[in-house]
Amino acid sequence: VAQRTLTATSFVVLGMLTYAPATSYQLKRRVASTIGNFWAFNHSQLYDEPSRLTAAGLVTVRREEGGRRRRTYTISDDGRAALAAWLAEPAFHQTEVRDLGLLKLFFGSLACPADLATLAHDQRQAHRDRADGYEAQRARVAGAADDFQLATLELGIRYERTVEKFWDDWLNGRVGVGLAEDR
Amino acid sequence: VAQRTLTATSFVVLGMLTYAPATSYQLKRRVASTIGNFWAFNHSQLYDEPSRLTAAGLVTVRREEGGRRRRTYTISDDGRAALAAWLAEPAFHQTEVRDLGLLKLFFGSLACPADLATLAHDQRQAHRDRADGYEAQRARVAGAADDFQLATLELGIRYERTVEKFWDDWLNGRVGVGLAEDR
DNA sequence: CGAATCATGTAATGGGTTACATGATTCA
DNA sequence: TGAATCATGTAACCCATTACATGATTCG
Predict the structure, then answer these.
(1) Inter-chain CB proximity B15 and A142 less than 8 Å
(2) Which of B29, B66, B59 is closest to B46 using CA atoms?
(3) For chain A, first and last CA: distance in Å?
(4) SS3 label, residue B147
(5) Cα–Cα distance between A77 and B135 in angstroms, integer?
(6) How far apart (Å, rounded) are the C-alpha atoms in residues A139 and B157?
(7) Would you give the DSSP letter of residue A93?
């Protein structure tokens, strides 16, 4: 039962396994349709992390005999305890927003105006699409998902609409010092 | 002039160096007061990355003779070209929002109500503080920063207010399926 | 003048990203 | 039945995180 510091990835895997045992591919699908919306995990992470958690005794594996010899992971009591402990402790970490578009905007003075306009259009569209997608998803899963998952989705929608509006305002000259005062 | 794929960190460093040559510590300070607000870089990254960029020929170093033997980095023409090329190319990468609080909310069904309430209070306060901080900062730098940097800050403020309101609504039962319809 | 903070690095570990590979299904 | 996609992994490299360390300043 080797000890190590658990990462966000660890808790994502543990959390997903509380719903039901799963293979890495199933984890990938569960993640992709939920938190993967705003926090990307590439599939190899979801193949690696369960191994580590197994080594730490937080999940157990069972490998198929024949065929593909798939590995199915199940959360252990220790795993549930670790997850519960994490949920109970205060979350004082800063939110990270990693947005290449925003980074480019920051250095906008170095870019040519045409590229900036393209950037703004692309970003507005991308965030609008994303918001639309979330709303469609919400309509689809409204019955199945629990309130917490729906709340997460709700914040996702609000976030994307906020950013969409920002780029729209930017394109229309409504972002700037001059207008900062009128709330 | 070794070739390698440039990362976001690379462009942050290159971009910061366009303002003026800088030591790693100065980079750290410039970053901390701007994009470091929402995209964290630990200081060793800003000591490592310039070395890599030097190896790639995108910046040049000059080391002090006496005293601390500080290294001062200057962006090269190749560096400017690389930055310009990046700014000109379309940005089709998904925004990443890495928020531990949101992750905990997602798994809220596994937590006890009291911990969830604490979480919500903490998050609301944290995001409010952050928004207030940004507004203070905007007031402070309004004259000095360029429009693009101010725009970045503006989005930061809108983002934090959105999230603050989300947690506030959550605490007041105003996030949920029932109310989804009334826009 | 001692403590705290500022400033400037290096080292080690491990997690994440990318790329490589290939066996199963599905579907035209 | 061939192509495309789904599914299931492995391997290597590199960046990011953490920890370690220590010399300069500042300030009470």
Answers:
(1) no
(2) B29
(3) 56
(4) helix
(5) 46
(6) 29
(7) P
pLDDT one-digit tens code per residue, A61-107:
999 877 778 999 999 999 999 999 999 998 888 899 999 999 999 99
Count CB atoms within 10 A of the CB of residue A172.
Answer: 9
User: Distance in angstroms, CA of B68 to C1' of C7?
Assistant: 9
* Size (chain B), residues: 183
d(CA B118, CA B111): 11
d(C-alpha A85, C-alpha A73), whole Å: 21
State how far the Cα of A129 lies from the Cα of B20, in Å rounded to an integer: 38
pTM of the shown model:
0.92
The nucleotides of chain D lying under 7 Å from a protein CB are 7-12, 14-19, 23-25
Q: How far apart are the first and last CA of chain B?
A: 55
User: pLDDT, tens digit, for every residue of B90-132?
Assistant: 888 889 999 999 999 999 999 999 999 999 999 999 999 999 9
CA pair distance A116, A127, nearest whole angstrom: 16
pLDDT for B182 beyond 50: no
